[in-house]
Amino acid sequence: MEQNLFLKVKNLRIYDISMPIYPGMPVYKNRAEKQPQTEITRNYENGVRETRWLLDTHTGTHIDAPAHVIPGGGTTADLDLSCLIGSCRVLDLTAVNDRITAGDLAGQPVLIGDFILLKTKNSWAAGNEVDFIYLDAGAAAHLAKAGVRGVGLDALGVERDQPDYPTHRTLLERGIIIIEGLRLREVPPGAYQMLALPLRLLGAEASPARVVLLDRE
User: Fold this and answer.
1) 28: which DSSP letter?
2) Distances (CA, A) of 67 to 32, 117, 207
3) pLDDT tens per residue across span 36-90
4) Closest CA to 65 of 197, 178, 200
5) At residue 203, what are phi and psi to the nearest 5 degrees?
6) pTM of the full predicted structure?
7) Contact 60, 25 (CB under 8 A)
8) Which secondary structure element, helix H or strand E, spans residue 143, and what is its range?
9) Out of 58, 68, 142, 168, which one is annotated catalytic?
10) How far is Cα 80 from Cα 116, in angstroms, rounded to an integer?
11) Are the beta carbons of 27 and 59 closer than 8 angstroms?
12) Straight-line distance from the first to the last Cα atom of the chain, in angstroms, rounded to the nearest whole number
């Protein structure tokens, strides 16, 4: 179930970098309460099938809004879609172990206004949702200082066991969008066009999203 979807349409490569959602899927720190639940409510009675899904807003590939860590902060419905549709850059950090630091980002091609996607060993480690490689607070500060508009990581959390969530706060307090749960195994580093659209859930601090990258050959 854990695989990237790669399509080619004419001269356009399309990378689906979203996780599939299903009962039994990888969830943050393998917590049972985060597992999706489904119920078939109509099974072709009167000719139709309908299903009820119970999902955590942080299920699979998802987008965090400021309200995730900031009381009264903006929600996913408040996000500026122009930040989620446009250019992005995939950085190769597959040599990193444990966590990404500011030193790991030094010399990387990060420009003002970039949406940065961090490709790590996580993309090959589906199912290891406990000891994943994460972005530490110093690295988050480095990206914030560089003026990026968003940061995405191929783990279900952008940080791991950091008291008071400094990575989230460093980014979200500055209006920098966070995407978690990407799957970047098949995506070469470089520049792409990205479409990352959260569900329009009013009042939600996060939302599952379908995220695709476009690469014109």
Assistant:
1) G
2) 24, 22, 12
3) 999 999 999 889 999 999 999 999 999 999 999 999 999 999 999 999 999 999 9
4) 178
5) 85, 5
6) 0.93
7) yes
8) helix 137-146
9) 68
10) 17
11) yes
12) 28
